[in-house]
Specification:
The protein is an alpha+beta fold. It has a single domain (about 5-15, about 25-200), classed as outer membrane lipoprotein receptor (LolB), chain A (Clam), CATH 2.50.20. The protein contains 5 helices and 10 strands.
């Protein structure tokens, strides 16, 4: 049976402790939202990612690498580049202005972008949030609100500096997906091929 990717998990829900010299500040959900709202939201963000998928019955994690594009206007592109057999591109487009708010694809687009941007707004319906500041980073834990969601996802953890640096999805089955992001940059602008990808995905 094929294992679910991070994006597939989101579709199903519809959609190191510090050394002691620095105190850990615990934030409730309201303070967590305020802290995330203060982070920069560039119109376009590019980054590299490394993904490790750990399965309860497999000793060695599965590893993949690729590129991430997050456009505030258009949506998200995830390109898996390595290993060669896993090469794929996933495009999650934001809705057109004429798409109804309840449209499933529109909700998925907003949720995936929110997760990758550390934006709790579209996630609040499905997840309760708590956070702490640890060694200068904001660590946010998202806990599913519903029993249906908990059947798929046990928890999601985000570690943020200026941007999202790490995303961990703990599956109810015991598996774990860990995505680390690096090489952040705010350009170049979307090229014609990327724009066509978003248009064809709407």
């Amino acid at each position: 049976m094929r294992r679910l990717s991070t994006v597939s998990l989101l579709l199903l829900v519809s959609f190191a402790t510090g050394a002691g010299a620095e105190a850990t500040a615990i934030l409730d959900e309201s303070a967590c939202k305020s802290a995330l709202a203060s982070l920069p939201r560039p119109p376009l963000l590019r980054a590299e990612f490394t993904q490790e998928k750990t399965l309860p019955d497999v000793a060695k994690p599965m590893r993949a690498e690729g590129e991430l594009v997050v456009s505030a206007e258009h949506g998200v592109i995830l390109r898996t580049l390595r290993p060669a057999f896993a090469q794929a591109t996933r495009v999650i487009a934001l809705p057109r202005p004429d798409q109804p708010a309840g449209n499933l694809e529109a909700r998925i687009g907003r949720m995936v972008q929110a997760l990758l941007c550390g934006d709790l707004g579209p996630l609040s319906e499905h997840f309760a949030a708590s956070a702490e500041r640890r060694e200068g980073k904001l660590v946010v834990r998202l806990s599913p609100r519903s029993a249906q969601t908990r059947e798929v996802i046990a928890a999601i953890t985000l570690r943020l500096g200026v941007h999202l640096e790490e995303l961990v999805v703990d599956e109810a089955s015991g598996g774990r997906i860990q995505l680390r992001f690096s090489g952040f940059r705010t350009g170049p602008a979307l090229d014609p091929g990327e724009l066509r990808s978003f248009d064809s995905s709407r």
